[in-house]
Structure formats: structure tokens, C-alpha cells
Amino acid sequence: MTRLDPQALVRHLDRLYRAAWALCGSREEAEDLVQETVVRVLAKPRRLHGDEELAYLLGALRNTFLTTRRTASRRPREAATLDDVAAADSRPGGQPEAALETQELFAAIAALPEEFRLALVAVDLVGLSYREAADLLGTREATITTRLHRARGRVAQALEAPGPPGRREGSGERRSLR
Amino acid sequence: MERERNDREDERVARLVARLRALDAPAPERLRSSVAAAVAAAEAAGRRGGRSRRGPLAWAGGALGRLLGGPLAWAGDALGRSRRRPLVWAGGALAAAAVVALLLVLALPGGEAGAPTVPQVAEVALKRPAAPAPATLPNGRLDVAGDGIPFPDWSSAEAGGWRATGTRSDRVGDRDVTTVVYANDAGERVGYAIAAAPRLPIGGRYVERGGEPMWVYELDDGTKAVMWLRDGRTCVVAGRGVDEETLLDLAAPREA
């Protein structure tokens, strides 16, 4: 067993951020989710079973999302306007149209049912293998293949459909009153 | 016909996968800075506990170099390199330590000038209310929020019978802090303060309660305070003469 190098959080930050954005559906919530994950991971030394630091960090992100953010992320959200996206994209040479497309892409992923979304995030956004994704999500590779196929199909369809990507389903989550 | 449709579908999905894998959506700089600062702080804490395998200036140099960038990055990088050359490092240790101290003050947890500390927020939570008690709502919440985060109604027996007795609003450092004061039948009083986002620098003793991370602080007069996070806001509950377990129970998640 090896100890997780805290610098792994910095090394994999971009991928974690993209995964968080896809899980939450908004950049602001993604930032909060990543920060909360970082706080949890750094709270005590973490041990890895092998060389899977990225899978470990994605697992931590997913757990943090499931325990703290899922309810919040299901609140109805206004679709982003071009002005919103242009203002949020502070990178030099940022292109508002491309940023808006990215926003729509993440919104479409965030609208997927959870199990499809997690499979797509693990494989297509974070870059885990099917085996690693199956281990992370506690299922079989064949199941990952199926979920991924359906997830990709739904996202592709959502992006071609007119209007903003659909909103998430479901309710009845555990709410903390504290 | 069916085959054509399937082909189109395959093409569409292939384009999507290519797009996903080529996605250019880096983390914002402010997030990168705060993560680097948190990592640096954790490594510093590990080093103090004798668990780190890295040298003291190596972590500071590496983390701060990445955190600060620009003109100050050379200082951090230089410190990191110097640790790997002990003889050279020894000659400049004094100057290096001074630079590290300066950079830590500027950059480590929170990293924002004017951000209050958790004990400062706790001191506000301990003050008397300045406004009447808020109404209770039927969903287990009070009709008052701090930076958009609603305060809970703790008056039920399950929650310990803590009735809201008043509120106050303060400005602490650069943050708005909203506090609800609660009291129980035994005459004990606690204040629950929510400091506006972004979260404050984290310290104190780490504990978990109900699967949630929390930090316990002891104020100068021995009063305990418990801090945790809700959607990026820093929450603090404190009460003079109220024990740590009670505060942790109040802060722990419970079913709606």
C-alpha cells in the first residue's frame, strides 16, 4: 500500500473540476464540490491499494457529491445565457460561443440519470479504463459498457434537440437540517 | 433505412466522444490557488507531525511556487531546489526562512487579506442577539438564512429542544456573518453563525460526526466551538459552558 501524495490533488485538478462540473451541472457548484473534496481528502493520510490515485480521487469526489451536493444540484437552474458564459470565461482569448457549447455539454451530462452520468464522467471525462470505472462504481465492466453507450446516446441526442438540455429527475433525498 | 439511422447515431456518438476527450475546460485560477494552498497547509501539518518524507523547504518551495506564480515563483522554486542541495541551502537558510514566513502569511489557508478566523466568528456567535427570534417554518427550518443557507429549527425533542431566541448580523473581517442564538430549558445558550462564502481558513482539531468532517476549536477562555461547511459556507456553533459533544450533535446531519 502507498500513501496518497497530496500533490495528486493539484496534478489532477483539471480532471476533477471537469468531473465535478459534469456531476453538478454548474461551474460554481463544481468549484464548491472540488473544494469540499479537497478538504475531506486532506483531513487525514490516505492509503492507496496500488497505483490508482486518479481513481481514488474521483471516488472521493463522487462520495462527496453523493453525500453533500446531490440535493443542491437538483434545484432548478436557469439556463446560461451567452452573456453569463462570456463573463465567466476569464481565460485570455476565451470564445463565448465555444464556452456556451461547453456549458451545454456539461448541462446535458448533468441531466443524465446518476448511474449513466457516473459512467460517462469516469471514462470519457476523467479517462479511467472500463475496468477502473467498474471497480470505482462497484459494478461489472459489461455494465459500464452498457451505461456508457446509453449515456453517450442520450447526451448526443440532448445536444441536437432544440432548447436547453433537460433537467434532472428524482427527489426525496436525505436533507440535513443543521 | 434502419442501418442508415444506426450509422448516423454511431457518427453522432463518435463526435461526442471525440469532443469530450478534447474538452478544454481547465479549473479556474482561484480554485487552483486555493487547492494548492490547502495542499501546502496539509503538507506543513504532516511535516509538523513528523509524517512527511519531504523536506520543510521542499514543500514550501514547490507549493508556493505553484500557488503564487509570476514574479514570486522564483522564490518558491529556489527554496524547493535548495533543499535538495543541503550545503548551498545551509548558507542561505536564514534568508530563506524569512521569505517562507512572508509567503506563508500571504498565501496559506484562505489566502485572502481580511478573511476572519473561525475563532473570530465564534466570538460573534457567543454575543447576545440584536434582533427578535425568527419564525419557524413547517419544513424544520427557521425563516432566516445566512448567505442563502437556511438556519435549522432545533426546537424538537430530537434536536435537543433548542429554541431560537434571536438573531444578529455582523461584519467580521471581510465577511457578513449571520447568527441565530438558541437556548434550551436548562438555560444553556448556543450561537450558530454562518459566514458568507468562500470558506474560511480551516484549522482546529479534525473529527467526523455522522460521516461529516468537522473541526473543533478551543477559544481563549476555554469555550469550545465546532466548525463545518455547508455549500461552501463556514458554519460555527459555540456556547459558553456547553460541552463539545453537544455542539457536535447539533452540527451533525440529521434527517429532515
TrEMBL record, chain A:
GO MF entries: DNA binding; sigma factor activity
Transmembrane segments annotated in the record for this chain: none
Record key words, sorted: Sigma factor, Transcription, Transcription regulation
Chain ranges of the RNA polymerase sigma factor 70 region 4 type domain: 103-153
Keyword ATP-binding: no
GO process terms (BP): DNA-templated transcription initiation
Claim: Zinc is one of the keywords in the record: no
Residue ranges, annotated region (Disordered): 72-96, 156-178
Biased composition (Basic and acidic residues): 166-178
One family name in Pfam for this protein: Sigma70_r2
Source species, domain of life: Bacteria
Record protein name field: RNA polymerase sigma-70 factor (ECF subfamily)
Species this chain originates from: Conexibacter arvalis
From TrEMBL, chain B:
Keywords: Membrane, Transmembrane, Transmembrane helix
Top-level taxon in the UniProt lineage: Bacteria
TM region positions: 87-108
Protein name: Uncharacterized protein
